[in-house]
Design goal:
With 192 residues, this protein is of the alpha/beta class. The protein has a single domain (2-188), classed as Peptidyl-tRNA hydrolase (Rossmann fold), CATH 3.40.50. The protein has six helices and seven strands; from the N terminus they run βαβββαββαβααα. The protein has helices at residues 18-29, 63-74, 107-116, 136-140, 149-168, 171-179, and strands at 2-3, 35-36, 41-45, 52-56, 83-91, 95-98, 123-129. The strands form two sheets. Strands 1-5-7-6 form a four-stranded mixed sheet. A three-stranded antiparallel sheet has the order 2-3-4, sandwiched between helices. A hairpin with a 4-residue loop joins strand 2 and strand 3 (41-45). The radius of gyration is 15 Å and the shape is globular. The two termini are 26 Å apart.
């Protein structure tokens, strides 16, 4: 499971680090800790070896370099990945799980697709769009508004559950369970 983001304290809590937030939540749920990997990434493995979490330490646009290093080191196919990242084309609170697809203009996914030479990469896209954005670069590198933090927290939890469903069951079950609700927006979902 790979969360995309930018390294460094100055990027913590930014919209572009939504993927990092989700894998950090999975690590917390599974009582796992991140350590430097043998390349341009941080990694965390569970005791059973069935779950590997990874955060590239390259900047977003070079994420594929780190992902390729992990793929070569561990030798598993792209179809066994789950890449989690922010999506400017989806409203805040939206969670979309897909088996494959293009990058949709996301430079981190573009880099991964290029370096792995495949679009057959499972992914979770996390909506970050809102009505207040102007410049895309400044917007994705900005922090969430205080008024959005509750929805961000709900989205992180929901996406972490969906990612674990993929890991421990399969992507079809994850898609059926986490994509089926009305417009896939966590803010429109009723609490259980």
């Amino acid at each position: 499971m790979i969360g995309l983001g930018n390294p460094g304290a100055e990027y913590e809590g930014t919209r572009h680090n939504f993927g990092f937030m989700v894998v950090d939540r999975v690590a917390k749920l599974k009582k796992m800790e991140f350590k430097p990997g043998r390349g341009k990434y941080w990694e965390s493995k569970d005791r059973s070896g069935s779950l590997l979490l990874m955060k590239p330490t390259t900047f977003m646009n070079d994420s594929g370099l780190a992902v390729n290093e992990v793929m070569e080191r561990y030798g598993f196919p792209a179809s066994k990945l789950m890449v989690i990242y922010d999506d400017l084309d989806l409203p805040l609170g939206s969670v979309r799980i897909r088996k494959r697809g293009g990058a949709g203009g996301h430079h981190g996914m573009e880099s991964i697709i290029y370096h792995l030479n495949s679009e057959d990469i499972p992914r979770i896209r996390l909506g970050i769009d809102d009505d207040n954005r102007s410049d895309d670069v400044d917007f994705v590198l900005s922090r969430f508004e205080e008024s959005q933090l509750d929805d961000v927290e709900k989205t992180v939890n929901y996406a972490a559950e969906g990612a674990l469903e993929f890991i421990y069951n399969n992507i079809s079950k994850s898609m059926n369970k986490y994509n089926k609700r009305e417009d896939n927006n966590i803010m429109n979902k009723e609490e259980n």
